[in-house]
Amino acid sequence: MLVEVLKSKLHRVRVTQAELHYVGSITIDEDLLDAADMIAGQRVQIVNINNGERFETYIIKGERGSGQICLNGPAARKVQMGDILIVIAYAYMEWEEAKQFQPRLVFPDENNRLV
């Protein structure tokens, strides 16, 4: 049996940009993606701490070292510049593997940089 579990999380990243007229996604600094073991095209859940919005989108790789967190397309309407987000990735695993699995949790600083 497969179970879906938390795989990785970017905890409390700050929105640096919102681009309404774009196909849709979240652009994330490549340093943050590497730290969280996330990849371009991966589906993620976004939780906006400021307004309680929860939605899903997919990742686009952003410029390494930029601190970029940009919501694109319709998701741009669900955030304001400076909002604090949690970006969550899940994975399917076999039951026994899931019981032992430790997710990768990343806690960047207030400028979306690794500490």
Notes on the protein architecture:
It is a single chain. The chain has helices spanning 30-36, 95-100; strands at residues 2-14, 17-19, 25-29, 43-48, 54-62, 69-72, 84-94, 104-106. The relative contact order is 0.37. The radius of gyration is 14 Å and the shape is globular. The chain has one domain: Barwin-like endoglucanases (Beta Barrel). Strands 2-6-3-5-4-7-1-8 form an eight-stranded mixed β-sheet. It is mainly beta. The longest helix has 7 residues, at 30-36.
Distance between the termini: 38 Å
Q: Architecture, CATH level 2?
A: Beta Barrel
- Tally of separate domains: 1
Give the overall pLDDT as a whole number. 97
The CATH topology name reads Barwin-like endoglucanases
How would you classify the helix and strand content by structural class?
Answer: mainly beta
The description of the largest β-sheet is: 8 strands, mixed
Beta content:
over 45%
The helix content is: 10-25%
Task: Output the number of helix runs.
Answer: 2
DSSP strand tally: 8
Radius of gyration: 14 Å
Which strand order spans the largest sheet, edge to edge or round the barrel?
A: 2-6-3-5-4-7-1-8
Q: Characterize the overall form.
A: globular
Instruction: Provide the CATH top-level class.
Output: Mainly Beta
Poorly predicted runs are none
Q: Topology as H/E string?
A: EEEHEEEEHE
